[in-house]
Amino acid sequence: MELSELNKKIASKEARIAVIGLGYVGLPVAAMFAEAGFDVLGVEIKPERVEKINAGISPIEGDEPGLEELLTKVTAEKKLRAVSDYAALTGCDIVLIDVETPVDDHHTPRYQALTAALRSLAPVLKEDALVIIESTIAPGTMQKTVLPLLEAGSGRKVNRGFSLGNCPERVMPGKLLANLRTLSRVAGGSSPQVAETMTVLYRHIVQADLDPVDWVTAELVKTVENAYRDVQIAFANEVAMICEALGGDVWKVRELVNKSPYRQMHLPGAGVGGHCIPKDPWLLAYGVEGLGVPLRMIPAARAVNDGMPLHLVSLLKDALAQVSASLEGSRVLVMGYAYLENSDDTRNSPTQALVERLEQLGASVVVHDPFVGEYQGDLLAAAADCDAAVVMVAHTPYRTLPLAALQSALRRPVLVDGRNLYDALSLRAAGWVYRGIGKTTV
């Protein structure tokens, strides 16, 4: 099938679409293409997720506006079906791959899920199908990893027996559907014609700019975007620690800095988590490994942001000392385990580093999170017999928490605020020993 024929099938919605990996990206993408009128087949290796999805139940918890309703609709209409068997993909014209691409402790990409998907797909790939990698990958991965696996496994050549593209997702939990609709996308194709076909496809679900480019540009745009955010957050975190040392208030400083044109200082906080920002800078760095590019800013930013949970530990030790208590032997309530407010996503959670350090220093820890199953429950009951509370995530229930009730539940009125949820003056006036990121201690 020539690209012109595929373009016609896309325009008429006769093209059959498959999505491999039905997680935070793949599931909403599959549901949106199904809503647009395409027949969509989802491939998911976890049987329990397949069962839930086919029943119209979203396996993604947390506050995800519209997703459950959309999934219920498209599965009831038989426009979306989930399977575990790659053999079902033999008739698919377009295959999107949305699997995890983490890095290990040495900051090296671990593409087990990606390579497994490619090896399973290649033997059943339809002649002239279009394969699109939506997962975030290091620059050079399309050429060095994806292309060889598909060519070897299918016995065909790119742009002759199949087409290949890279269209990195840009989504955040809590805004999955909205982000997919309204954020621009970069469509990197194995040829300019393939890139144009990709924009024709994504126009069915994306209301923002769709820019046709080459593979490397697409790979760079996504990893550079998140490396930029990481560097900016690290700067804000470093300024916050400067403000603490000098007796300033980073939140007031940030407000006034941002009044100046073309300034946009990011938010400081208790750490950077999620599947993207902690790893994508390392993917960008990996892309130039061995090419003689001296990298200083990216590793430094990663170190600053990874160190913020440990900075919260220092603030907690200081606050406990004010009430003549030590961290060793204390019982600490940690509020929030997801990496993002109102989400159940715990990938690369800064809270994990905080908890590990607290336990190393001899504290016992009670974790609460209203959106993460294993940590749900009554917050005030969790606070009972705790010597201090540390806020790690800006969940809405924490914003509206009756702080007087929390103060009564705790053994000591010690609160460390990692997300600027509370007003320092009000809490101190109410008898709290309060510490916050970027805030003076008096």
Radius of gyration, in Å, reads: 24 Å
- Give the C-level CATH assignment of the largest domain: Alpha Beta
End-to-end distance, in Å?
71 Å
User: Mind telling me which CATH architecture of the largest domain this is?
Assistant: 3-Layer(aba) Sandwich
As residue ranges, the low-confidence spans are none
- The total domain count is 2
Helical amount = 40-55%
CATH superfamily of the largest domain: NAD(P)-binding Rossmann-like Domain
Silhouette: elongated
Describe the protein in words:
This protein is an alpha/beta fold and about 450 residues long. It folds into two domains: about 5-210, 3-Layer(aba) Sandwich (Rossmann fold), CATH 3.40.50.720; about 305-435, Rossmann fold. It contains 18 helices and 13 strands. The protein has helices at about 5-10, 25-35, 45-55, 65-75, 110-120, 140-155, 175-180, 190-200, 215-245, 250-255, 280-285, 295-305, 310-320, 350-360, 380-385, 395-400, 405-410, 425-430, and strands at about 15-20, 40-45, 80-85, 95, 130-135, 165, 185-190, 210-215, 330-335, 365-370, 390, 415, 435. Strands 3-2-1-4-5-6-7-8 form an eight-stranded mixed beta sheet, with helices on both faces. Strands 10-9-11-12-13 form a five-stranded parallel beta sheet. Strand 5, helix 6 and strand 6 (about 165) form a beta-alpha-beta unit. The N and C termini lie far apart (about 70 Å). The mean pLDDT is about 95.
